Structure formats: structure tokens, C-alpha cells
Amino acid sequence: MRRLLAGLTLALASAAASTPAAAQVLRFDDIPLATTGSVAVDDFYDGGGGAAFDYGVTFSGDALAFCLNRIGTPNCSNTSWGSDPGAIARGTEGAGLSINAREVFMNRERGFTTGFSFYFANPFGDAGRFEVWTGLNGTGTLLASRSMGSTPNGRSDPACFGANYCPFIASSVSFAGVARSVRFTTERADFIIYDDITLGSRIPGTVVPEPATVALMASGLIVLAGVARRRARAVA
């Protein structure tokens, strides 16, 4: 029985290693930054933030994390998650992503499947778009793409702390295959703000088991159940 379990564990581990990385959410709240100002996030989620944030995700240059207005830190930028009651209650959503170029690539060499999603604010109606590709740096086969329309301007909304970039709206795509990069393009640099970028799910901020992982676990449980039944019969 022990030998069978050991073999099953090894088989599960081997299969898992050959599959795309698990779904992951880039919240940016965990990036150390001053109350005002910003920091480059090129390799923060690829070990640059320490072992706890080694998600294997890198950005090309001109991608910056910066402070978002919220309870306790108003007026740190022109962006706010303040109109989201859930974020206020959790005291989260303290940072977001700004792209200071007309084109930026997000790469994950091991890949991700199923879907891609995020929240964004685009109050000035910039012509933004994102594309999901099978290869790094927007190469290979295009799996999915979507344009990003205008979002409400929260300047006169008290819940937005006077910030134009508020509220944030969800955007997502589903796709078949394994993606390894996302290409973000904008008409003007620094006019769209992103948060909760989610790889492997079409619901921003939500991580669910990938179908392949679920199937792998189910097959293992079926094998174990069969072994248990045979042992029960042998004892009887």
C-alpha cells in the first residue's frame, strides 16, 4: 500500500510539473512603495519581491506600481478604489499598475490557461487593448483579445476621494490553449490604470483549480478508493 501511494504521489507530482503554472492574482498591494510615488515592477513577481512572490511573471519596461487613494491614505494619487465597499471593508487595494508606454508585455514562461482578467479604470476614454499570445513578448498565436472602453469618472463622487480614476471595472477573456504573454497597448501612455491582474481565471481576483489539476486529483482519488475497496474485501 505504501509503495502504491508513493508511486501515485510521484506520478501526480510529475504530471503537475508538466502542466502550466497555477492561476495567480497580481494585486500590487504587496509591493513596497511610498505613500506617494511609484516603483518599477519588472521582475517583482519573478522572485524580485522575494520567494513569497516568485510567480514567474515579468513585465517589460515602463510598468509601475503606485499608491491608490483609499481610507487612511487619501490624496496619494489621482486613482482610487474607494467606491468599492468591499475594498474599504478589507482595507486593501492600496496599489495599482500604471503603464507608462504605449506598449508593454507581461510574460509568464511556464504559461497559464483558461482565462485572463483584471480591473481597470479609463475615465478619459483612451483607446486601450490587450492581447493574449502563446509565445513570449506577443509572439506565436493570438488566443484572445479585447478593447477597453471608457469607465465612469469619479471626480465628483465622495466615495472616490476626488479621484478621476474611480471606480474600477472588470474586463476578461476566455481562451483555449496555453498562453505565455499578454500585450497591453494604449493610445497614450499612463491613461489606463489596472489592478488585480489575474492569470488563469476570467473572474478578476479569483483563483480556481484549473481543469487539468482537478482531473489529475480526481484520478488519484479514484485509484485510492479502488485500493481501499480491495483491502476491505481482503480483510473480510
What features would you describe in this structure?
The protein has 236 residues and is α+β, with helices and mostly antiparallel strands. Helices cover 20% and strands 29% of the residues. It is built from 3 helices and 12 strands. Strands 1, 2, 4, 5, 7, 10 and 12 form a 7-stranded antiparallel β-sheet that branches. A 5-stranded antiparallel β-sheet has the order 3-6-11-8-9, with no helix packed on it. Helix 1 runs antiparallel to helix 3. The longest helix is centred in the C-terminal third of the chain and has 25 residues. The radius of gyration is 21 Å and the shape is globular.
* CATH overall fold name of the largest domain: Jelly Rolls
Uncertain runs:
2-18, 210-228
Order of helices and strands: HEEEEHEEEEEEEEH
Query: How far do the termini sit from each other?
Result: 17 Å
Strand content: 25-35%
State the major sheet: 7 strands, antiparallel
The structural domain count equals 2
| Overall average residue pLDDT | 80
Helix tally equals 3
Indicate the radius of gyration in whole angstroms. Answer: 21 Å
User: How many DSSP-defined strands?
Assistant: 12
Helix content estimate = 10-25%
User: Per CATH, which architecture of the largest domain?
Assistant: Sandwich
Per CATH, the superfamily of the largest domain is: Galactose-binding domain-like
> Pairing-aware structural class of the strands and helices?
alpha+beta
Q: What is the top-level CATH class of the largest domain?
A: Mainly Beta
Morphology: globular
